[in-house]
Amino acid sequence: MGGNSAQTPSWTLSIRRTVRTSMQHILQQILSAIAAPDKPDPINDCPASVLAVLPSHPEPLIALAHSKLHSFSFASVPVCWRRLYTDASIAKAVALIEHGLAHPDGCDTAPSGTKRKRDRDAVRGPSSGLLGEAWIDEAVKVLDMAAIMAGAAGREEVIDELFSGLQSYLNNKASPQPKCPRGEKVWDSFPVAQNMELSKAPRIQYPVQSAIAPSMQAFEMHMETTQPLRIKDALDHWPAMHERPWSSPAYLLDKTLGGRRLIPIELGRTYTDDDWGQSIITFKDFMQRYMIPNIADPSKLGYLAQHDLFAQIPSLRHDIAIPDYCYTSPPPLKTPGLTSAGKPPATHLDEPLLNAWFGPAGTVSPLHTDPYHNILCQVVGKKYIRLYSPDQTNKLYPKGVEDGGVDMSNTSEVDAEAALNELEAEFPLFQQAEYVETVLAEGECLPAIW
Asked: How many degrees, rounded to 5, is the angle at CA 273 between CA 268 and CA 278?
């Protein structure tokens, strides 16, 4: 038969039904696992009365576990409370997703006072009555808070499976690409060059040595000199540089469920400033407030800094590769007995740690030393870096233990961007400290052993 129709094509309906059926099966499996945890599971250390109501009334249990998380330092929190926060969050998210799949238009015709409505409200609490795709927003928020607040204790794969299911659901809805608020165009690139004033571009006086993708043997020979090395053409094989480009805001929004994923950010120029703060916001809000031109307020800075983003969003982990150079062992520094800020030598790791930094021009990491050797890889934009050898430590004025018992001895008191006369007056030895510097460009990496 011929003719036009405004209805959704039947093959699309079939795909959506398949995705929905698959999701419902996964949700039931997850709820079953939560309702009957394994005997050695630390969650069993929580009171039995609490566990009995976990599948049906997760909302008050999230509040209870939240209070426990804030009663201890993170490292001291009993694992059972982290597990309770995680499983209660998963149970709430499952209920939201089940309701959303059953009522994709946001309408729930359950009469007031019916068992179905009472059960739904017990699970969803103040989130009931969500319209459109707001149930997805709420489910994502609940799951990400479990990952950020409790480390997704023991449920990393479950949470990732739920996120993957939501991603498939959104992909099969064929939602339009995210657009600027004015609806003019897709966010297709970052304004790297436009945001950088040439007058602020640093003049390199003491450059870091550089090499083009050295062999492992050549790299290890250079490391024997204990000198930093800027490596060019190091990341050309990364999908993040080409076919899955991190330079595309639209791509990053898609990988974060339309920008719904939550991320922890730092507020302000640097963590040593008095007005520095922290917040948890959606990725889309972060982009709009701090990254996209004509939307972001240039006087305000937000920075996703040193975050284990790839554990939280594993799909982004597939866009990068750990440089082979990470699997070498730099030799000890040649200054006997001297370590950065009085710290012991860099800790050896069996596997590299992965952290991400993402922010606009103007964000600053103050002079500091890390407990590990690391390789900084630049995917988008450029970063100015200054490095001081550990034998210059006495000229860098390390901080001490601050109010509240926070050990800041890995961070310098010096603001290297301050006016010269201020530095000479307050930190007279700093101007004598020797350093090397570079501007790390896209596709380059810098092994930092100082």
From this structure: 45
DSSP H/E element including 271: none
The closest alpha carbon to 372, from 326, 418, 427, belongs to 326
**What's the 3-state SS for 398-435?**
ECCECCCCCECCCEECCCCCCCHHHHHHHCCCHHHCCE
Is residue 57 within 8 A of residue 123, CB to CB? The reply is: yes
* DSSP one-letter code for 236: T
| Lowest-pLDDT choice from 112-126, 249-263, 270-284 | 112-126
Q: Provide the token pair at 374.
A: 């690391």
Length of the chain counted residue by residue: 450
Q: pLDDT-based confidence at 187, cuts 50/70/90?
A: low
Q: Which residue has the higher pLDDT, 130 or 124?
A: 130
d(CA 347, CA 352): 11
The structure tokens 């233990």 sit at 401
Contact criterion met (CB below 8 Å) for 268 and 277: yes
DSSP secondary structure letters along 76-126: GS-HHHHHHHHHHHHHHHHHHHHHHHH-TTS---PPTTSHHHHHHHHHHGG
292 Cβ contact partners less than 8 Å away, ≥ 6 residues apart: 180, 187, 249
Torsion of CA 396, 368, 377, 244, to 10 degrees: -140
Between CA 359 and CA 305 the distance in angstroms is 8
Q: State the chain's mean pLDDT as an integer.
A: 82
Q: Which residue has the tokens 């009995």?
A: 52
Residue 91, both tokens: 């149970």
Residue among 174, 170, 183, 110 nearest 135 (CA):
170
> For the residues 410-419, what does the mean pLDDT come to?
88
